[in-house]
Amino acid sequence: MKIEKIICDCCGEEIPTVKKKDIFGIEREYYRFGKLNYGEPFTDINCHNLGLDLCERCAGKISLEMYKTRMEMLNGTK
To answer: What pTM was computed for the model?
Structure first.
């Protein structure tokens, strides 16, 4: 098995792994990548597919900032 370290693009810390069983009962290691949540209909955007490696903490911070900006834009139009 190849051991690989993936580093978060935002904070520079190593992205942790977790062991899960797949549908066949084989235990495998998966990386705990963070997902962005911008609100409906853009929930759980997987940044790894877009070429970004984010940990869960950084993804949560970015999601919160996007939410704040969205609310500011909505309140500014009234």
So the answer is: 0.74
Query: Over the Cα atoms of the chain, what is R_g?
Result: 16
The residue extents of the domains of the chain are 17-76
- pLDDT tens track for 13-70: 999 999 999 889 899 988 898 888 877 777 778 887 788 889 999 999 998 998 898 8
Distance, CA of 34 to CA of 6 (rounded, Å) = 13
Structure tokens that stand for 33 in this block: 């990548």
DSSP string covering 30-57, please? EE-B-EE--BTTB-SEEGGGGT---BHH
